[in-house]
Amino acid sequence: MAYKSLCAVKGVTANGIKEGKFGLALIRASGTSAGVFTANLARAAPIELMRKQIRKGRLEAVIANSGCANAYTGRRGYDDAVSMTEYAGSALGVDTSSVGVASTGVIGRYLDLPLIRRQCADVALNLTSSPAAEDLTVKAIMTTDLYPKHALVEKEDFTIGAIAKGSGMIAPNMGTMLAFIYTDAEIAAQPLREALRAATRRTFNRVVVDGDTSTNDIALCTATGESGKVNTTEFSAALEACCRSLAQQIAADGEGASKLLEVTVRGAPKEEAAAKVARVVIESPLVKTAVYGEDPNWGRVIAAAGRAGVKFDPNAVSLWISDGNEKYPLVKSGEIIADLTKAKAAMHGKKVIFILDLGAGKEEATAWGCDLTEKYVEINGRYTT
Predict the structure, then answer these.
(1) Could you tell me the residue range of the domain that residue 309 belongs to?
(2) Are 320 and 197 within one domain?
(3) Which positions does the site annotation Cleavage cover (predicted)?
(4) Under a CB-based contact definition with an 8 Å cutoff, are residues 224 and 9 in contact?
(5) 255 a known binding residue?
């Protein structure tokens, strides 16, 4: 069995357990660390705790549970998050303040601490660096995900491996996602923070499934340093590639999704302007439903772009549709040239791509999302019952 993610990294061991809706994962790796967190003001207890603990720039382990978000749980929830770090610290023999913690699941419910304590003790007995451990660990943190999410970038001098969960409540400024990223590169805390923030901005913050921003989003990156010092520029590019893979997997596995939707915006005055337009198009319910119905109603793309708050001349816009192989023009410099038969054919597969050129600059950005189906309503209409 080949490695797919974090256990390919020197210095990482892991394990996980899933019992019904309730899972627990442990990852043991010592090194400099950085984190990014949800922009939601109603931050879950683990987020509040980790925003403090990550300031030291070092972690020894991570504990994460699924089934209960421990969000909107007040002081008790915060104390429960601390208890999770104590369970992991005790089981692994590390300082409690150097344990990362994350939770995902239903908001407004308290953790079952006896269950978590028992699961933690069981999982800690069998931490390994095997490919099987990767699978157990990622499955332990899944909720409505249909597929486990692994990413692995192997360079000559270092490796980056990561797992993630995420399917619904996904919007820019991260989504309901947990991401645990590891590298054996030797890199100091400050450049690691800068690299993670830059990678997040161009990947996780450009994914939209449903437009809701979660209370529990967290991405933690730990560098064990066991492969030695690396070129910072090369490392940053590799980290972005790793996060991009996870972001695309999250978008493709959106709740109820049948198609991955990718939107690239070119010809923008600034990169963030391009990203803003791309996110608005990705988030549009009208665009998403048209993609689901394989209806080449490309005018919805133009309409969404026009309300993004970015200035451009609609008469200078060009637009293409693609299935990842063939690319068909729909508009060229404001002139309609669409072949709707070919456009519809490009929507039959599992991936639909729109390339939009604003004709207003030289910058570009890409965002990812999915179609909107009846299954999404079914999943979320009865999420807690």
Answers:
(1) 260-381
(2) no
(3) 175-176
(4) yes
(5) yes
- Is pLDDT at 169 greater than 50 in this prediction? no
Q: Which CATH number do you get for residue 289?
A: 3.10.20.340
Q: Looking at the structure, do residues 188 and 290 belong to the same domain, yes or no?
A: no
In a domain, residue 109? The reply is yes
User: What's the rounded mean pLDDT across residues 375-384?
Assistant: 67
176 labeled binding residue: yes
Predicted local distance difference test score (pLDDT) of residue 375? 78
One-letter amino acid of 33:
S
Question: Any binding-site annotation on 86?
Answer: no
Tens of pLDDT, residues 241-268? 999 999 999 988 877 788 999 999 999 9
Same domain for 181 and 319?
A: no
Q: Active-site positions?
A: 176
User: 211 pLDDT exceeds 70?
Assistant: no
- Mean of the per-residue pLDDT values of the chain: 92
362 is in an annotated binding site: no
Q: What string of DSSP letters covers 270-334?
A: SHHHHHHHHHHHHH-HHHHHHHHTT---THHHHHHHHTSS----GGG-EEEEESSS-EEEEEETT
Tell me which of 252, 274, 303 is where a domain ends: 252
161 and 79 share one domain: yes
